[in-house]
Amino acid sequence: MCLVTGLENHNGLIRFEFVTCGDHLKHTRCQDVCPWRGVVELSAMKNTEIERKFLVDKEKWFAFYKEPGICYLQGYLSIDEEKVVRVRVAGDKGFITIKGKSENFSHPEFEYEIPSDDARELIHHFTKTRVEKVRIRITHENHVWDVDEFLGENEGLLMAEIELEHPEETFVKPGWLGKEVTNDVRYYNAYLSLYPFRTWQEKTPNS
């Protein structure tokens, strides 16, 4: 597991330091004994992401769409109540993302493209909680939807996301859309990396 020990924004530059141990974190001692340490600096451009999440009716979805999607692998450098720091490989691209706390469907987000090889190295060496999924992006009634079919320990979960310009924006729901889970923390990807869907004692059906 990785610990982000510093997160700063100075004159448009995001700088964060992370440390990790091969077995487990030792907090402040980790800085002295840890074999892996790193500092990342990236040009910052603040963005507020407004999104809503829904479960997907599997039968209706697979009857509707059969094209292949893009494979996603993502790991988490840090997860706490105030922020999530994620590294992602999406197809042949790599990204590092810092997300703030969600409120009223929105949260601050900083995302930057990085070399995919670097993203894979960060995931391999600095993360222990990960999520795998296949993402399909479609347009329905002038809105873009990302539909995620989760794999691995989250296999069986099918979820859709829509990004909006503002919280009150209206949109037409596709026929394969199910229950809204925007405010259910269990369906956040960071939570799923810690508590996978297949381990839930009472699963909510995708409808």
Order of helices and strands: EEHEEHEEEEHEEEEH
* CA(first)-CA(last) distance: 34 Å
User: In DSSP terms, counting alpha (H) and pi (I) runs of 4 or more, how many helices?
Assistant: 4
Biggest sheet details: 8 strands, antiparallel, barrel
Strand residue content = over 45%
How would the global form be characterised?
globular
Tell me how many strands there are. Answer: 12
Radius of gyration: 18 Å
Backbone structural class: mainly beta
Overall pLDDT score: 82
Q: Major sheet: order of its strands?
A: 4-8-7-6-5-9-10-11
Flag low-confidence runs.
Answer: 20-41
Helix content: 10-25%
What is the secondary structure topology, with strand pairs?
Elements: E1 2-10, E2 13-20, H1 30-33, E3 36-43, E4 47-56, H2 58-64, E5 70-79, E6 83-90, E7 93-100, E8 106-114, H3 116-126, E9 130-140, E10 143-150, E11 158-163, E12 177-180, H4 189-194
Antiparallel strand pairs: 1-2, 2-3, 4-8, 4-11, 4-12, 5-6, 5-9, 6-7, 7-8, 9-10, 10-11
